[in-house]
Amino acid sequence: MARRRERSRRRRQGASQAPCRAHRLTPADDELYQRTRVTVLERESPNTMFIEGYTSRGFTVSGDLVVGPCAILPRAILQWNVGSYRDISHESLSLFRLLEPQIEILVLGTGDRVERLHPAVLKQMRECGIAVEVQDTPNACATFNFLTSEKRVAAAGLIPPRGTYMGM
To answer: pTM of the entire structure?
Structure first.
């Protein structure tokens, strides 16, 4: 009988106590978990283009600084003669149609925002067998890096965003 009373007393005490945690997260701890940093220890393929960062002035691609809009091809980086998304036309995309082997997908970064391109321009690229993905430049950089890491034959046409910086 005494044992029963002791057990029920212990249960009552345990039920009223909150579970004890050894560590509580503070706002500072939470901020550390929200940041992501990518460090490339060893390149899988030294010939693969990888966008490492961008500024309002240009891009860092595989260690090279490119000023202004650029065309990133499977084995080359070129200046791209467009001033804004309004300059993206059949003629400005002709470079991407002439590549051999043909690219599977073209990622276009239109600056700070996703901008709509003329439907005829997109249709002409599809007729050539090239899929086109239009995104804001930060997301276009990430998409291009993902596609190339997956060994897809991809190219990118990128316009620097205004007033932002992202370096990895």
So the answer is: 0.70
